[in-house]
């Protein structure tokens, strides 16, 4: 499957990021099909990355070896029904679902077949090759898994998981967590504006600092706690700020937020 054709069904934010990561790391645009019900939503991905686009999911399904299901979880049952009803042979295809909160068992029920399936939990930094994708295989062989690894390694780190339940854990750790970091950055940006910096200055200050901090974590390879200590002079300004965050329970708040994320995924598994 080295020249596998990959169809992204429901090309929105997440598929755009994966496709971008693939193209930026040298995948052939000719082997990627992006679908959406709405052609106008496909113009950007076609212009930016030169991939094929298609408003008819069944044409993409018939042409592709790997089918990435990337509609919102609430749309998945309707989409899968059209595939199950299509009469197209699904048995040789590898399905990859990036949807949160829908299990392998439920996806197979929706497709009315024990299809070869990989559950994948990516994140949007995939666009820059800085993504993380948790992967869980059901019914795929080694060669197929190698092809999937190749695709998701192109977008960052691809990590195979032993248990399907770990997909929900990785949603909390990496799938949803870019939003936690963005919220933290928004809070700093907003306060910088309140302190009198212009919107442009506030944006520049927060983005440079966040990027610098993240790059130090990667570059220095020492405990993150030590990096923090290196900023924190005893009796100084950082110590005052950190003490406030800790008194307000930041660590517990983050832990509780991640538990809420996992709980929502489990609840979706019951609902969808
Ligand atoms: N956005 C994120 O950071 C992440 C999202 N995911 C998962 O990715 C999936 C997609 O999420 P987003 O990209 O954020 O959503 P999105 O709403 O940006 O993209 C989904 C697209 O699918 C289209 N669509 C809906 N039904 C369709 C159909 N029957 N045929 C063709 N296109 C159809 C919609 O028009 C929309 O443009 C979800 O299942 C979500 O759980 C997973 C990890 C991270
Ligand atoms: O919010 C969501 O449900 C999806 C899954 C991980 C990120 N976005």
From TrEMBL:
<protein>
    <recommendedName>
        <fullName>Pyrroline-5-carboxylate reductase</fullName>
        <ecNumber>1.5.1.2</ecNumber>
    </recommendedName>
</protein>
<comment type="similarity">
    <text>Belongs to the pyrroline-5-carboxylate reductase family.</text>
</comment>
<dbReference type="Pfam" id="PF03807">
    <property type="entry name" value="F420_oxidored"/>
</dbReference>
<keyword id="KW-0641">Proline biosynthesis</keyword>
<dbReference type="InterPro" id="IPR036291">
    <property type="entry name" value="NAD(P)-bd_dom_sf"/>
</dbReference>
<comment type="pathway">
    <text>Amino-acid biosynthesis; L-proline biosynthesis; L-proline from L-glutamate 5-semialdehyde: step 1/1.</text>
</comment>
<keyword id="KW-0963">Cytoplasm</keyword>
<keyword id="KW-0028">Amino-acid biosynthesis</keyword>
<dbReference type="InterPro" id="IPR029036">
    <property type="entry name" value="P5CR_dimer"/>
</dbReference>
<dbReference type="GO" id="GO:0055129">
    <property type="term" value="P:L-proline biosynthetic process"/>
</dbReference>
<comment type="function">
    <text>Catalyzes the reduction of 1-pyrroline-5-carboxylate (PCA) to L-proline.</text>
</comment>
<keyword id="KW-0560">Oxidoreductase</keyword>
<dbReference type="GO" id="GO:0004735">
    <property type="term" value="F:pyrroline-5-carboxylate reductase activity"/>
</dbReference>
<keyword id="KW-0521">NADP</keyword>
<feature type="domain" description="Pyrroline-5-carboxylate reductase dimerisation">
    <location>
        <begin position="164"/>
        <end position="268"/>
    </location>
</feature>
<feature type="binding site">
    <location>
        <position position="57"/>
    </location>
    <ligand>
        <name>NADPH</name>
    </ligand>
</feature>
<dbReference type="Pfam" id="PF14748">
    <property type="entry name" value="P5CR_dimer"/>
</dbReference>
<dbReference type="InterPro" id="IPR008927">
    <property type="entry name" value="6-PGluconate_DH-like_C_sf"/>
</dbReference>
<dbReference type="InterPro" id="IPR028939">
    <property type="entry name" value="P5C_Rdtase_cat_N"/>
</dbReference>
<feature type="domain" description="Pyrroline-5-carboxylate reductase catalytic N-terminal">
    <location>
        <begin position="5"/>
        <end position="101"/>
    </location>
</feature>
<dbReference type="InterPro" id="IPR000304">
    <property type="entry name" value="Pyrroline-COOH_reductase"/>
</dbReference>
<dbReference type="GO" id="GO:0005737">
    <property type="term" value="C:cytoplasm"/>
</dbReference>
<feature type="binding site">
    <location>
        <begin position="9"/>
        <end position="14"/>
    </location>
    <ligand>
        <name>NADP(+)</name>
    </ligand>
</feature>
């Amino acid at each position: 499957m080295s020249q596998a054709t990959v169809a992204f069904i429901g090309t929105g934010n997440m598929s755009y990021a994966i496709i971008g990561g693939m193209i930026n790391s040298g995948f052939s645009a000719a082997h990627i099909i992006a679908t959406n019900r709405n052609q106008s939503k496909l113009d950007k991905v076609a212009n930016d990355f030169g991939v094929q686009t298609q408003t008819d999911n069944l044409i993409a399904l018939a042409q592709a070896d790997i089918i990435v299901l990337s509609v919102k979880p609430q749309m998945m049952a309707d989409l899968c029904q059209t595939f199950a009803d299509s009469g197209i042979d699904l048995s040789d295809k590898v399905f990859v679902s990036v949807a949160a909160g829908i299990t392998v068992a439920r996806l197979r029920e929706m497709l009315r077949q024990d299809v070869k399936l990989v559950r994948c939990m990516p994140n949007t930094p995939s666009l820059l090759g800085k993504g993380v994708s948790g992967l869980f295989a059901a019914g795929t062989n080694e060669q197929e898994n190698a092809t999937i690894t190749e695709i998701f390694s192109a977008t960052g780190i691809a990590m195979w998981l032993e248990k399907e339940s770990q997909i929900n854990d990785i949603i909390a750790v990496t799938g949803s967590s870019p939003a936690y970091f963005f919220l933290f950055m928004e809070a700093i940006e907003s306060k910088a504006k309140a302190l009198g910096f212009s919107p442009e200055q506030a944006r520049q200050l927060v983005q440079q600092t966040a990027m610098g901090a993240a790059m130090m974590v990667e570059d220095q390879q020492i405990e993150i706690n030590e990096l923090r200590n290196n900023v924190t002079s005893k009796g100084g300004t950082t110590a005052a700020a950190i003490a406030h965050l800790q008194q307000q329970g930041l660590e517990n708040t983050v832990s509780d937020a991640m538990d809420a994320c996992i709980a929502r995924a489990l609840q979706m598994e019951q609902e969808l």
